[in-house]
Specification:
It is a single chain. With 71 residues, the protein is mainly beta. It is 8% helix and 54% strand. Strands 1-2-3-5-4 form a 5-stranded mixed β-barrel. It is globular and about 30 Å long. The protein starts with a strand and ends with a strand.
Length: 71
């Protein structure tokens, strides 16, 4: 399922992952684990800056606190 949202915050989780808090119209504020490649600065400096509009394919489970993004 394709989701559209607004990036609220990004947090470096490890060398190749970040946690992005994204506001979705229907689900509200959710946290997603994002693989950022070799440099997390690349992802946060580009697509995942706060207040950026993003469109992505994700798996959202009801009881999970951290969701995963497919693409």
């Amino acid at each position: 399922v394709v989701h559209r949202g607004i990036v609220v915050q990004t947090i470096k989780y490890s060398d190749q992952k970040i946690i992005a808090r994204i506001f979705l119209k229907q689900q509200g504020l959710l946290s997603f684990l994002v693989r950022a490649g070799k440099s997390p600065k690349t992802a946060t400096g580009g697509l995942l800056q706060p207040l950026s509009l993003v469109e992505f394919d994700a798996v959202i489970k009801e009881n999970a606190q951290l969701h995963s993004i497919k693409s």
